[in-house]
TrEMBL record:
<keyword id="KW-1003">Cell membrane</keyword>
<keyword id="KW-0675">Receptor</keyword>
<feature type="region of interest" description="Disordered">
    <location>
        <begin position="326"/>
        <end position="392"/>
    </location>
</feature>
<feature type="signal peptide">
    <location>
        <begin position="1"/>
        <end position="31"/>
    </location>
</feature>
<keyword id="KW-0677">Repeat</keyword>
<dbReference type="InterPro" id="IPR000483">
    <property type="entry name" value="Cys-rich_flank_reg_C"/>
</dbReference>
<keyword id="KW-0966">Cell projection</keyword>
<keyword id="KW-0449">Lipoprotein</keyword>
<dbReference type="InterPro" id="IPR001611">
    <property type="entry name" value="Leu-rich_rpt"/>
</dbReference>
<protein>
    <submittedName>
        <fullName>Reticulon 4 receptor like 1</fullName>
    </submittedName>
</protein>
<keyword id="KW-0433">Leucine-rich repeat</keyword>
<dbReference type="InterPro" id="IPR032675">
    <property type="entry name" value="LRR_dom_sf"/>
</dbReference>
<keyword id="KW-0325">Glycoprotein</keyword>
<dbReference type="GO" id="GO:0005886">
    <property type="term" value="C:plasma membrane"/>
</dbReference>
<dbReference type="InterPro" id="IPR003591">
    <property type="entry name" value="Leu-rich_rpt_typical-subtyp"/>
</dbReference>
<dbReference type="Pfam" id="PF13855">
    <property type="entry name" value="LRR_8"/>
</dbReference>
<dbReference type="GO" id="GO:0042995">
    <property type="term" value="C:cell projection"/>
</dbReference>
Amino acid sequence: WPDTTLPSLQTGALAELLLVLLGLKVPGAASCPTDCVCYPSPMTVSCQAHNFVTIPEGIPEDSERIFLQNNQITLLLRGHFSPSMVTLWIYSNNITFIDPNTFEGFVNLEELDLGDNRYLRALAANTFQGLVKLHALYLYKCGLSSLPSGIFGGLHNLQYLYLQDNHIEFLQDDIFVDLVNLSHLFLHGNKLWSLHQNTFRGLINLDRLLIHQNQLQWIHRRAFHDLRRLTTLFLFNNSLSELQGDCLAHLGALEFLRLNGNPWSCDCKARSLWEWLHRFRGSSSNVICESPERMHGKDLKVLRAEDFRNCSGSESLHQIKTFSAADRGASKAHHPHHSSKEKGGEKGLHSSHPAARPGPRRPAKNCTSHKNRNRTLKPGSLGPRKSGHEFPDYVPDYQHKFSFGVMPTGLPKRKGKCTRRTPIRAPSGVQQAAGGCAGLVASRLVFVLVLVAITR
């Protein structure tokens, strides 16, 4: 009898070979879960958008990247995944509970996206314990109302933490203290109402902090004391009526600040913030006054010292001493808010304490004037930005960075003496005439002797 199984075996082998060549099957590996697609090198399992309500069975143990987003998964339990996993995307599901031991031993996990799980309202403190390589954690658009103390403990390599659009009302002291390498922290769209002294302690490498669209009413004056590398701070659309200048004094690297959309009170308590804004050389939004009535609708940044003339007490005297006329004069040439004030270029921006400006000096004899020679315009010399050209709140314009060096204490002094000119000498072989009166007398004597000889 003819063997009829050979063609079918050959067909099956060809199909297996075709799957391997297309990268849909890995030789020697377990089969891919139903309705999923698998790729080798690194082993990747993609099961997105298939209405799974549980983690699909049959995920290969050597899987490094697993994509389960846009399903209906409700629970994450221990044993669902293998410790070889490096990346897990499981956002946009219906997760309500995560077993604290789900990721136990996952020392290779680098990226974990749990975002947009709106029914995930609580997390255990040890949920992420031991994830020593984790560098990106996404917890945005969940139903979180609080974060337990120690939840981020040991995550020393975490760089990106997304906590926006939750219902968080309060942050525990030192909750971020282990995140020494965190560079981006997104907290906008929550219900935070205060920031305490140790809320952000330990975030020594933080670059961007977004806390806009919360309910902030109070910020401790040392809340940002560890954020010396922060370049972007968004505080707009909160309920802040005052903010001490000392609170921002620690932010030496700050470049982009947004304070708009708050009910600012521009009374005597606002003076320290006004002074800080005048020293700030980065990009900042308008700070529109809500009260008192005489200041309503005005921008705090363009107020003058006369607007605070009725302020008294030790605090006011200290502020006046801190921001003296001498300080203004020293920083004016480098400050985007002051460069055109005394020229009358911006209405309402005149300072009440202008620094003394020396008049133009006439160049000394035989001196070349150095004024405007090889002059390079700095961003500060372009004058203050008009309100109609403010940067958007959500996207800072990183194409217009300023130079954030140390503020000079005084303008560079010009040398008082001229450089001695190089004397012009006669070419080699040509005798030079004697100089001075002796040379003149000698030449006249020779002329007289020649004239006498001719007349004889």
